[in-house]
């Protein structure tokens, strides 16, 4: 149906009026790294300097091939010389004449001079991460061409700005890195609003009005666009200035990280009953209360923050991001069951805060200041810019005044003055304002503070990741203490993603500046490391008490609700039984238990009668938004039962044996094995296709390989090669059993050499260049450390060989390292495969050695025993960038074993079976 001409005209007029009443925007740049506009550009130093060309805006110019890369700490050799000159031609609508026109820069690094039509728009702006604007109404040509010229100095002429932003532990970039646009407002308009919406429905707003107007009103709208409550209005006097609105709204839907309910607050300005301007803001009703010597309360509930530090960063675009990037980051954090994020070490893009509002993350918003701080005049201006832009976001719970000594204390009162909500101000790394936020405390010192201190304990950085250390390693220790201590408000891991940047000057390789930027839970492109999955399990709001699967299992799991607001009946639970040999599975849904926050309860799983014939039970919890919280796996079958199904002992031919000067050689069913007569060590394996280079074991780690007095004998159809026990010189013993089938059994009873030891287990040699991959039954596919065992489900995993070094290359999961709960493993080689089976529980499979790395403090050291392939009963922990493993909590302590008398009955016992046949 066509609209009648008069109706069409009326609608067009109405649309024009509505547009005129709202703030209009005209983007001169693109909106992010996925939407850019070419500007003319001239770089004064470094790559591609000294010539006019073009550059996408917004961007960091290093990522576009200009200037010089440098990773903080003022180590730039062309410091002070690197500037970018920008030019852009644009038109302004004729209809904008008579309005107030601002040019808005959302972020520019660093000192920024702006000219419009050859005339200065205002003073040079200093400070990279802050939204600033100039009134350019009088400089514009309406309806015709205009010239914008911008000069950006990468390093500031203001020493304090460089101290706060550039002498820092992160990449230092240059350029107009966030959007640039014009905004057009009526001469009489709402300049800005600041909202305080409390959990009890009390609402207050401070509104800055410019020009003459006689009435201001407010209407709230729900997420689906319906009016919420009655409008609130106030009469204005004829003078412009600050006014306030207040009211009470009944039973608002509250905002929290678990239930991020938002409303739209629409402010309308009237003159003579005519609408002259409207402005809308997303808001959330919620109350933040800090109780000294107690904790942080949101909506009356005491909160434990499961947080992470986050840089605004992408490898190919530096600090230039998009809303899509913000959604990706927040969703990934939420997937790890985090509820909080700290802006390190500067304010983020506005769209990141929008996403935190809408998806639900508590935010600590931070004024830049890594170890230095802004001078007071500069800092005062930047605090005002930051709060003007960010003040209405309900996700923001704290303000941080700089980082690790980068605190200008003169600025502290300004936060309360500029923030209608009076949110608490934090000094990260200090005991300040009731919060002890010290960074990277060793476990004993940190937990000592929790138990003996008086301030609220909330480390704004802890478990500093480096390569594969930190993050999920020892988080379980720290978190259990944080949960149990009433003074703890949780904490923030360092940090979210590896800061690996694309080097346009080095053939587009990824550079994390050695170990400086390799400290993320995920890689530069969000590749998931092992710690990602450990954190996801440890920080799951649904906690399962440990449970063994036995024939007497009654289907009951004890669970705990670690949500702050949600009942577990808002979650869905499902189960799946899986036979790992046949692929047969059964599954079903469960009745969600009614368990209040912080309470314990029971989850009843009604399994079929034949459930014990399956290998593993999986339980999945999903939140009310359909997101998986975690999937727990409970092995049903045990290694000994699995070994009985795999190992074949009978054969058609007898085992044969021959002896030479130094070797015992045994043959069975096409398999030929050679053992040292001196110590029983395996020297060679051969089958019908040739040699399998699996040799030189078992070697005891860490302990004495003192197998002595080797003898051979028949045990029925089997042949045995065994050592003889001696309490002083041969207290470790081995026993090889070769079956007619060709299968080989190894039993070793052994004692670690020390009371405290990094390694407990047996090593063998195998050339790394001959391995192609493995297939194994156990927990996987990610490697583990003694202090990071969580996150891996039980199943059968196949991994191709890679040489990934965590934080330097990003093909995950890493092949090399320790893998937990091995039942069996098939080694896929370039020549022919072989299989190893164990009947022991809790065996770690060690696959070769990751490259040894350390730092000046020897905190991060990935330790591996000698040899290439190992079967371990004790493995080491991994340290962080700031603590050695043994100072990171009980889980990271060395393995403890004590037996002074070398009593054989108290020896460790490890049994392995080997299948070297052609058809294994």
TrEMBL record:
Q: Which GO terms describe its biological process?
A: lactose catabolic process
Provide the Glycosyl hydrolases family 2 sugar binding domain boundaries.
53-186
Ranges for domain Beta galactosidase small chain/ come to 715-834
Enzyme Commission number, as recorded = 3.2.1.23
Q: Name one GO cellular component term.
A: beta-galactosidase complex
Signal peptide residues on this chain, from the entry's feature table: 1-20
Instruction: Specify the Glycoside hydrolase family 2 catalytic domain's residue ranges.
Output: 296-507
Which Gene Ontology molecular function entries are recorded, alphabetically? beta-galactosidase activity; carbohydrate binding
Under catalytic activity, the entry for this protein gives:
Hydrolysis of terminal non-reducing beta-D-galactose residues in beta-D-galactosides
Keyword presence, Nucleotide-binding: no
Keyword Disulfide bond carried by entry: no
Q: Where is the Glycoside hydrolase family 2 immunoglobulin-like beta-sandwich domain?
A: 189-286
The cofactor required is:
Ca(2+)
* Keywords in alphabetical order: Calcium, Glycosidase, Hydrolase, Signal
> Which InterPro entries does the record match to this protein?
B-gal_small/dom_5, Bact_Beta-galactosidase, Beta-gal/glucu_dom_sf, Gal_mutarotase_sf_dom, Galactose-bd-like_sf, GH, GH-type_carb-bd, Glyco_hydro_2
What SUPFAM superfamilies is this protein classified in?
A: (Trans)glycosidases, beta-Galactosidase/glucuronidase domain, Galactose mutarotase-like, Galactose-binding domain-like
Q: Which family does it belong to?
A: Belongs to the glycosyl hydrolase 2 family.
PANTHER family recorded for this chain? BETA-GALACTOSIDASE
The record's subunit annotation is: Monomer.
* Descriptive protein name: beta-galactosidase
Native organism is Pedobacter heparinus (strain ATCC 13125 / DSM 2366 / CIP 104194 / JCM 7457 / NBRC 12017 / NCIMB 9290 / NRRL B-14731 / HIM 762-3)
């Amino acid at each position: 149906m066509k609209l009648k001409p008069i109706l069409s005209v009326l609608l067009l007029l109405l649309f024009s009026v509505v547009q005129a009443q709202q703030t209009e925007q005209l983007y001169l740049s693109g909106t992010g790294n996925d939407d850019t506009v070419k500007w003319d550009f001239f770089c004064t130093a470094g790559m591609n300097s000294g010539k006019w060309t073009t550059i996408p805006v917004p961007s960091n110019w290093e990522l576009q091939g200009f200037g010089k890369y440098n990773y903080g700490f003022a180590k730039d050799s062309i410091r002070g010389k690197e500037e970018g000159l920008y030019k852009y031609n644009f038109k302004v609508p004729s209809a904008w004449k008579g309005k107030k026109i601002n040019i808005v820069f959302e972020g520019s690094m660093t000192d920024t001079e702006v000219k419009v039509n050859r005339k200065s728009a205002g003073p040079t702006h200093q400070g990279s991460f802050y939204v600033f604007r100039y009134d350019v109404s009088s400089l514009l040509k309406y309806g015709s061409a205009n010239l914008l010229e911008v000069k950006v100095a990468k390093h500031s002429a203001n020493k304090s700005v460089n101290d706060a932003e550039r002498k820092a532990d992160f990449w230092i970039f240059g350029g107009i890195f966030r959007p640039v646009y014009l905004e057009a407002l009526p001469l009489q308009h709402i300049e800005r609003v600041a909202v305080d919406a409390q959990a009890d429905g009390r609402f207050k707003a401070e509104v800055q009005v410019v020009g003459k107007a006689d009435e201001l009103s407010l209407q709230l709208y729900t997420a689906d666009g319906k009016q919420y409550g009655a409008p609130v209005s106030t009469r204005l006097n004829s003078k412009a200035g600050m006014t306030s609105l207040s009211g009470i709204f009944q039973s608002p839907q509250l905002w929290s990280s678990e239930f991020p309910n938002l409303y739209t607050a629409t402010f309308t300005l009237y003159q003579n009953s005519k609408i002259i301007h409207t402005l809308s803001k997303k808001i959330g009703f919620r109350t933040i209360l800090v109780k000294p010597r107690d904790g942080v309360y949101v909506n009356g509930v005491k909160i434990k923050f499961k947080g992470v530090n986050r840089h605004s960063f992408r490898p190919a675009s530096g600090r230039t991001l998009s809303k899509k990037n913000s959604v990706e980051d927040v969703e990934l954090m939420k997937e790890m069951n985090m509820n909080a994020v700290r802006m390190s070490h500067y304010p983020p893009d506005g769209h990141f805060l929008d996403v935190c509002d809408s998806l639900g993350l508590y935010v600590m918003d931070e004024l830049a200041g890594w170890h230095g701080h802004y001078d007071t005049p500069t800092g005062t201006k930047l605090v005002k810019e930051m709060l003007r832009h960010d003040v209405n976001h309900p996700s923001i719970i704290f303000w941080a005044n700089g980082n690790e000594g980068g605190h200008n204390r003169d600025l502290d009162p300004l936060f309360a003055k500029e923030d209608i909500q009076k949110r608490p101000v934090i000094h990260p790394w200090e005991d300040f304002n009731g919060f002890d936020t010290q960074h990277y405390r060793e476990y004993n010192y940190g937990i000592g503070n929790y138990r003996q201190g008086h301030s609220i304990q909330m480390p704004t950085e802890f478990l500093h990741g480096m390569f594969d250390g930190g993050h999920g390693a020892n988080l379980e220790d720290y978190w259990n203490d944080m949960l149990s201590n009433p003074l703890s408000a949780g904490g923030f891991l360092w940090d979210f993603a590896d800061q690996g940047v694309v080097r346009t000057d080095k053939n587009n390789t990824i550079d994390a500046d050695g170990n400086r930027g390799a400290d993320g839970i995920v890689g530069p492109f969000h590749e998931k490391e092992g710690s990602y999955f450990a954190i996801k399990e440890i920080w799951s709001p649904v906690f399962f008490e440990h449970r063994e699967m036995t024939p007497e299992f009654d289907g009951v799991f004890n669970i705990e609700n670690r949500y702050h607001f949600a009942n577990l009946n808002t979650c869905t639970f499902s189960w799946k039984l899986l036979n790992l040999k046949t692929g047969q599975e059964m599954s079903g849904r469960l009745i969600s238990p009614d368990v209040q926050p912080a309470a314990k309860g029971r989850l009843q799983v009604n399994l079929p009668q034949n459930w014990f014939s399956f290998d593993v039970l999986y339980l999945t919890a999903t939140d009310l938004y359909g997101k998986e919280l975690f999937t727990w796996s409970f092995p049903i079958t045990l290694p000994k039962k699995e070994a009985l199904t795999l190992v074949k002992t009978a054969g058609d031919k007898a085992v044969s044996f021959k002896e030479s000067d130094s070797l015992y050689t045994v043959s069975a069913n096409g398999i030929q094995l050679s053992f040292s007569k001196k110590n029983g060590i395996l020297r060679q394996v051969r089958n019908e296709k040739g040699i399998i280079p699996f040799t030189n074991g078992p070697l005891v780690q860490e302990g004495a390989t003192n197998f002595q007095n080797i003898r051979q004998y028949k045990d029925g159809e089997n042949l045995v090669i065994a050592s003889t026990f001696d309490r002083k010189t041969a207290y470790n013993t081995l026993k090889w059993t070769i079956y007619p089938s060709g299968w080989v059994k190894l039993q070793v009873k052994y004692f670690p050499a020390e009371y405290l030891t990094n390694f407990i287990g047996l090593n063998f040699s195998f050339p790394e260049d001959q391995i192609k991959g493995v297939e194994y039954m156990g927990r996987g596919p990610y490697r583990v450390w003694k202090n990071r065992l969580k996150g891996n489900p039980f199943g059968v995993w196949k991994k191709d060989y890679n040489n990934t070094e965590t934080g330097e290359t990003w093909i995950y999961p890493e092949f090399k390292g320790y893998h937990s709960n091995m039942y069996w493993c098939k080694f896929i080689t370039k020549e022919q495969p072989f299989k190893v089976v164990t009947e022991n529980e809790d065996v770690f499979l060690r696959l070769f050695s990751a490259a040894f790395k350390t730092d000046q403090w020897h905190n991060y050291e990935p330790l591996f025993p000698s040899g290439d392939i190992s079967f371990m009963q004790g493995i080491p922990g991994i340290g962080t960038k700031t603590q050695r493993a043994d100072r990171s909590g009980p889980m990271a302590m060395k393995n403890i074993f004590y037996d002074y008398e070398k009593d054989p009955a108290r020896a460790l016992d490890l049994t392995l079976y080997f299948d070297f046949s052609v058809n294994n």
